[in-house]
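Hey, can you fold this one?
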Amino acid sequence: MVTLTTRTKVRGYRVMLGKTQKEMAEIFNISKQAYSAKERGESRFSNEEMVTIKEMLLPMFPGITIDEIFFSKK
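Sure. Predicted structure:
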């Protein structure tokens, strides 16, 4: 389940990457509105999109996992 904390994390990682929502949408070949909905938790990131974001973050955070990026720890 995507929580507020998770949404904030995904947005924070995007900002750390220096990317706008529009740039991320272009990477995923979707509209900015579709990307924004994913970041807000209104629709889900596909497995492929999750892997892409993880790969983009690896130079900054070696060893980061998809779970750390997209799923909150309870």
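Residues 10 and 69 are 6 Å apart (CA to CA). Let me know if you want another pass with a different chain boundary.
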